[in-house]
Amino acid sequence: MADPRPIGFFDSGVGGLTVLREVLRRLPAESTVYLGDSLRAPYGPRTDDEVRRFSLQCLDELASRDVKAIVVACNTATAVALPDLRRRHDVPILGVVRPGATAAALATRTRRVGVVATTATVRSHAYFQAIKDEDPFVEVYEHATPDLVPLVEAGQVEGPHVEAAVAEALAPLFGARDGRGEAIFPLPPAERIDTLLLACTHYPLLLPVITAAVGPGVAVIDSASATASALASLLETNGLGAPAGTTATHVQLTTGSVRAFRRIAERLFGELFPAVEAIAVPGAAA
Ligand code: DGL
If both were cysteines, with which of 43, 78, 98, 280 could 12 make a disulfide (CB 3.0 to 4.6 Å apart)? Predict the structure, then answer.
C-alpha cells in the first residue's frame, strides 16, 4: 500500500523549515505542503488561547489540502494545542515535543538538560514533563529565550549582533550572576548542564552561533531528526509512504512576507523551493 498525497507541516513562521529539511533528507520521495503563519509570529509571547486558535485555523487550511499526515513543526503549538488539534482532525498529527524530549533524555550523561524555548512553551512545562516521563532522574532546567525568534524571522542568523543576543539569552543557563553575585537561574553552581535542547524550531537556524556560545562540553540537540524518524516509522507502519518512482512536489505557504520567507527557505534549501505562495488563513487577515 502506498499514498502519494503530501505531508502537511505547520509552524508560526520559518522555524519549521528546520524540521522539513530533516524530513526531506530522510524521506526524499515525499511531497510536502508547508504553512508558516509569519504574519502572526512569534507565537511564543501569546496567550494559550491565541496559540490554540491560530494553530487550529492553520491546521484547518492544511487539512483542506488533502494531506495524509501533519507535522506540527512548532514547539509552542505542540506544547499548547496538540490535544485540540488531534481532537479536530482525523489525519495522524505528529508534534515535536516528545521526539525532542526523548533525544535529550538519551543524550545527557550527567542527567542535566537545559531546555531553551519560547515563553509559552516554558509556561506549559511540556518539556519538563516529557523528559521526566522518559527518565525521572534527569534534572530539567527550562529557560525562555523570547528574543531569538524575532531575529530569525527577520533573517538575522549571524553576525556580532546575533552573537551578543544569543550569549545574553543563554547566560543564565551557564551560571550568569546578577549585580549582587547571585546566580540568576536556579542551577546549583557546581552543576553544569551537558545537554542543551533547542526546544523551538527556529533555534537550529542559529546553530553555529549557539554551538560557539556554549563551547565544546555541551551537546546541542533539537527535535528535527527525531521527528523525522518518528514520521518515517508512522508512514511505514500505516502504509502511507509515497509510491516508488513518485516525483515529489513541494509547496510553501506563508501568511506573511513572501520575500522574507523565501530568503530563509533559500538559505536552507538552495533553489529547491523557488515558489513560495502568499496565503490568507481565515482569521489571519493582513
Ligand atoms: N518555532 C516555534 C516553536 O518551535 C515558534 C516560535 C514562535 O513563534 O514564537 O516554538
Answer: 43
Evaluate if residue 190 carries a pLDDT over 90: no
Prediction pTM value: 0.92
Tens-digit pLDDT profile for residues 115-163: 999 999 999 999 999 999 999 999 999 999 999 999 998 889 999 999 9
Distance 118 CA to ligand 1 centre (A): 6
Q: Which of 94, 143, 153, 201 to mutate to test the pocket of ligand 1 (most atoms within 8 A of CB)?
A: 201
Pocket of ligand 1, candidates 54, 75, 255: which has the most ligand atoms within 8 Å of its Cβ, to mutate?
75
- Cα distances from 121 to residues 95, 128, 145, in angstroms, run 13, 10, 10
